[in-house]
Description:
Distance between the termini: 23 Å
Number of helices: 11
CATH class: Alpha Beta
Amino acid sequence: MLVDTYGRTATDLRVSLTDRCNLRCTYCMPEEGLSWLAKPDLLTDDEIVRLVGIAVTSLGIEEVRFTGGEPLLRPGLVGIVERVAALAPRPQISLTTNGIGLKRTATALQAAGLDRVNVSLDTLRPDVFKTLTRRDRHHDVLDGLRAAHDAGLTPVKVNAVLMPGLNADEAPDLLAWAVEQGYELRFIEQMPLDAQHGWKREGMVTADDILTSLRTRFALTPEGEASRGSAPAERWLVDGGPHRVGVIGSVTRPFCAACDRTRLTADGQIRTCLFAREETDLRAALRADAPDEEIARRWREAMWGKKAGAGLDDPTFVQPDRPMSSIGG
């Protein structure tokens, strides 16, 4: 098992398949993009499947989430999902995506074994979407969401980040739309993981701000800690249910004490936390023909050293060098 010194056990593996993305969201990367990882630095499909296999069969991983960058840009994605779904025991398999490519891939991914998707959509207004992402692809995301729903990749979850001066007023409209469409909406506080290092705590839209805005139109009933478990989102029943809304307050309401995640970057590094500044290189071990037992040992050792928390409230907090697109969401 992947246990740390604080008694937490990692059962959820986040796997970044690429650092590339076809959007340029202002809270993630600059308009010109980034210096992408070179192809030889990326894990191959076989290497990804081998590492996931070790995690699932030897280290107690029960859920695998594929992320990016934008994971739908990975040419071998369907094959990777199919091979991971064939593992025994079979993990739950999900995908975090911007949704642009889902219209053409949702059916194939579901047939390969994908269980569900999280799709990022921050606004219902096409003009605001274009400002936020620097791309005119709002309709593609909406089409992708519908395709995922129709393919049975449910519950379809929608992730939204609210930014002051852009879409901070949209919380009630987004929730009304999600309820109408049958999606589960989750608001995520903006985190200090932008490539530009321009994040500022002052003025950010907080979890409390979001809840205050939602309550102007909806009655929210908290589900409570028992139903939350290790999930990052605090969840509320909307107008008595059955619809739910979640809020992930990574900055102002951290949930580090219950964290059950381990992260594998697209270039084969283990990260114990989104905000970690240390990594453990598994790619080098793979390419040096290390046996599975040695790779598992290195993984356990990395997780044993996991810190108590992300330290966002510490005055000495330093943002990690890697941006979100390079870490994996």
